[in-house]
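Friendly challenge for the regulars: who can give me the structure tokens for this chain first? No prize, just bragging rights.
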Amino acid sequence: MIAAKSISSMRDDYRRASARRVVAIVACGLFLAGLMVLDLTTGPSGMPLSDVLQGLRDGPEGADKGIATILWQLRMPQTLMGALVGACLGTAGLQMQTILGNPLASPFTLGFSAAAGFGAALAIMYGDIIPLPNYLVTPLAAFSMTLVGCGLVYLITRLRGATPEILVLGGIAVLFFFQSVQSLLQYLASPEVLQQIVFWLFGSLLKSSWTSVTVVSVIFVGCLPMILRDVWSLTVLRLGDANAASLGLAVDALRLRTFAVVALLTAAAVSFVGTIGFVGLIAPHAARALVGEDHRFALPLSAITGAVILIGASVFGKFISPAAAIPVGIITAVAGVPILFAIIARRGGRSGGAA
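First reply, four minutes later:
Bragging rights claimed.
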């Protein structure tokens, strides 16, 4: 009888905890929606909230052509791209920290951002010889080089095993390699080309278009089935490799599958907007603080949190410099450093207490 009551009480506690997690996800989703509307009201030309709401109701073919053009052709692609890129980086960051068992890991730990930067620099310098529109050459080159970086790390893991240590060491090797060749291209570039390369590396939403939004959306949605397939497995992996293997989980295969998904999400995120740091590091910590380690809740909340961080950076950049919005990559880097210190100090305090 007592055991039955205990089981019933545990079941009720679990349901209440799940309900709180769902409420947290919904609340963060509503906050993101409000932040996106705020982002649409900010910009060089300014636009009252009433005009934005009217423009949203009227659609792209609204009566006021000026509002429709600014809202649907300029600001809406940037806002949607910010949300999508933040969601990709947030999701990839949580998966990366899970498979590596490292709270300070992010998609960029494996050198993907450096590979994308090299691809973009290569396209900016020599893209004229490729018979494609200029607005496609740079993202395609960045995406391709990100996949090359992914392939190099994958090759290392096939040779030495897909352990967290090998993944990190392989990623560091790829990171330094692409950073070095990227620096070589910058050294050889003319001042005009160098300026373009540096601007891309800042990370900006200004060149977003409906084409780029569509491409990133397709990649993100295409990765969802693979992410959902391994939700429970990733949750189990948080218990440690030994415990996960004892429950029948193929740990190395899971790491390689997740690694491929992280590569795709990161490539999609950085190919059109450039290098954006710290989002993939901070968003997972915020999500786990709100809903815990259960990836059924942590993954969607990490995606939403990543989108909130990036849209918030966009709004902040427009507020402090309305005439020329500061690239979001600069905002996230500046804001991410103190948060990173806080994460390190918090974990250091726990270790000290444990000792």
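The chain has 14 helices and no strands. The chain has a mean pLDDT of 85. Your move, everyone else.
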